[in-house]
# Entry
Amino acid sequence: MRNVRVFYKKSGRMKFISHLDMNRFMSRIIKRAKLPIWHTEGFHPHPYITFALPLSLGFESEYEVMDIRLVDDDFPLEDVLSKLNETFPEYIKVFSVAEPVMKVGSIAFADFEISFNDNGVLKDGLEKFLVLDSIICSKKTKKGGIKEIDIAPMIKAKSIKCDENTTLLLTLPAGSTDNLNPELLLNAFFENYAEQYLPYSICRTMIYNTDMKEFK
# Structure
């Protein structure tokens, strides 16, 4: 058997597909593409598919990672790419297929691009917000409770670019140990530091390991 890592982009309407539905979607796509995928054993066999870092509902992504396992060691990787792209619908596209280099557990950070439809209105407020020494947010715990955390020290990198609209660029913890959803930061901004709420879109643009190397 051969482990294969699939890198793809997810945009447009596909951002409304939840992670659970993505599992079902990918299982059907792989079956239609007629890839020689290995199935789990037991009473309910299913295709072996794992996602490196599940994407939040409503997010687009330029760098999604899915691992599959093929029963044919000689099946060409370029055929995996072409067969998947021939089968995928609009708004999802594979851009690379390779053998895994890093372990999924090594994922630690991710880049996010947050675009506001604001005509530059939010730029000054965001600049003041991002230099705060402390940003206190309420976050749900795994047990269903609520705790207050300071997310300011968790932001690894931040910048703003502004042409017609404002775009916020962030590098945030995104591993199994530490994970900061950018919407938590945005909620704090709009609730406490912005004069008005304006729509935005979020795109995850890259995933890194603990050494800030591109996840492969």
